[in-house]
Amino acid sequence: MSDYAGDLAPRQAWDLLASDPSAVLVDVRTSAEWQWVGGADLSELGRRAVGIEWMTSAGEPNHRFLEQLGQAGVDADTPVLFLCRSGHRSAAAASAATAAGLGPAYNVAEGFEGDPDAAGHRGSVNGWKVAGLPWRQS
Questions:
Q1: GO molecular-function annotation terms (predicted)?
Q2: Which residues neighbour 15 within 8 Å (Cβ) at sequence distance 6 or greater?
């Protein structure tokens, strides 16, 4: 059992974001991942995903993570959904947010790219992209 509000499949995450305008999607991958791999596109919902690195591009923990969540408008009454590549960093972020009294906090369990396939490549088994949800690449 997790210490946050729960794990959501990408389609469940989308449905929550679509049904609750106060819900915030926070992409906790690195800025390099946002730039080169792409990210969730919430423009049809009239908003954007918030990018806050859980780990910096240098591989260090982001010590300002909780502060940056607050700056993004996340508080004790804000449903917040965390997304990373595969659902591991986002689970840790959801736990940290919950421990800080923020949320309810959810983990998008399959992440943006999902699990690796038999050849070790992501983006074909599950995840936000495979679910056919809106995304864009810069």
A1: transferase activity
A2: none
